[in-house]
């Protein structure tokens, strides 16, 4: 059990995989960290020495923005757009796609689940 | 793909003249522009532009945060107010 960057407790997986459980660290950054600290790819998280864990923690603190800080930054960026009154901000406010995708069909990720139109007649044959 | 840095931001040249003229006149009047494609420069901060949306000139007070965006982003061209709910459904 290792706590790195706040609340994350990656289990007995390989270190490269375990690190990706941290919000803001994907496979690329995880690999970069392991390479910098020369941790072999086969090493599991529960086999790490306390010293290594400390080193990883320090490296992440120093170089990357993760978890809460990163989430806050993202939220701030969106809030900036919304307060600015620009087109992208309007789309965020409306919960519609921001980057010019079609909304005639699809766009369900942004719009949420489809809602039935009240009073629309079913086609009968 | 993003625009090359060496080209600098895109601005229609006459906007600079208009902005300078407005600054020189001292009165804070709405500068009417059609060039929605132009980038907002730090130079424009504090001025008010009327950005044409194909129908009207919408007043846009340029603030520091807007620098780097285009004028067109602040002047929506479409009006969609939502679907009216079905008449039959409302009656029933």
TrEMBL record, chain A:
Entry keyword annotation includes Transmembrane helix: no
GO cellular component terms given for this protein: ribosome
Keywords: Ribonucleoprotein, Ribosomal protein, RNA-binding, rRNA-binding, tRNA-binding
Keyword rRNA-binding attached: yes
Pfam hit, one: Ribosomal_S13
HAMAP family listed in its UniProt record: Ribosomal_uS13
Function field: Located at the top of the head of the 30S subunit, it contacts several helices of the 16S rRNA. In the 70S ribosome it contacts the 23S rRNA (bridge B1a) and protein L5 of the 50S subunit (bridge B1b), connecting the 2 subunits; these bridges are implicated in subunit movement. Contacts the tRNAs in the A and P-sites.
Name of protein: Small ribosomal subunit protein uS13
UniProtKB/TrEMBL annotation, chain B:
Taxonomic superkingdom: Bacteria
Keywords: Ribonucleoprotein, Ribosomal protein, RNA-binding, rRNA-binding
One GO CC term on file: ribosome
Cited InterPro entries: Ribosomal_uS19 (IPR002222), Ribosomal_uS19_bac-type (IPR005732), Ribosomal_uS19_CS (IPR020934), Ribosomal_uS19_SF (IPR023575)
Gene3D superfamilies named in the record: 30s Ribosomal Protein S19, Chain A
UniProt record similarity statement: Belongs to the universal ribosomal protein uS19 family.
NCBIfam families associated with the record: rpsS_bact (TIGR01050)
HAMAP family: Ribosomal_uS19
Known function: Protein S19 forms a complex with S13 that binds strongly to the 16S ribosomal RNA.
Protein name, entry field: Small ribosomal subunit protein uS19
Source organism (scientific name): Rhizosaccharibacter radicis
Primary gene name: rpsS
């Amino acid at each position: 059990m290792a706590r790195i960057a706040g609340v994350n407790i990656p289990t007995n997986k390989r270190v490269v995989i375990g690190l990706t459980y941290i919000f803001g660290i994907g496979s690329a950054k995880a690999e970069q960290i392991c390479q910098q600290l020369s941790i072999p790819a086969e090493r599991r998280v529960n086999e790490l020495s306390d010293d290594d864990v400390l080193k990883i923690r320090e490296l992440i603190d120093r170089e990357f923005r993760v978890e809460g800080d990163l989430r806050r930054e993202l939220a701030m960026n969106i809030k900036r757009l919304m307060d600015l009154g620009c087109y992208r901000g309007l789309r965020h406010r409306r919960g519609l796609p921001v980057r010019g995708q079609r909304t005639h069909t699809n766009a369900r990720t942004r719009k949420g689940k489809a809602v039935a139109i009240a009073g629309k007649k079913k086609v009968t044959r | 793909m993003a625009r090359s840095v060496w080209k600098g931001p895109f601005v229609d040249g006459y906007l600079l003249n208009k902005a300078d003229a407005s600054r020189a006149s001292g009165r804070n009047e709405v500068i009417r522009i059609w060039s929605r494609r132009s980038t907002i420069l730090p130079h424009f901060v504090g001025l008010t532009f009327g950005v044409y949306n194909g129908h009207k000139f919408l007043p846009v007070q340029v603030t520091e945060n807007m620098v780097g965006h285009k004028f067109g982003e602040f002047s929506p061209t479409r009006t969609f107010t939502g679907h009216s709910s079905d008449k039959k459904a409302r009656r029933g």
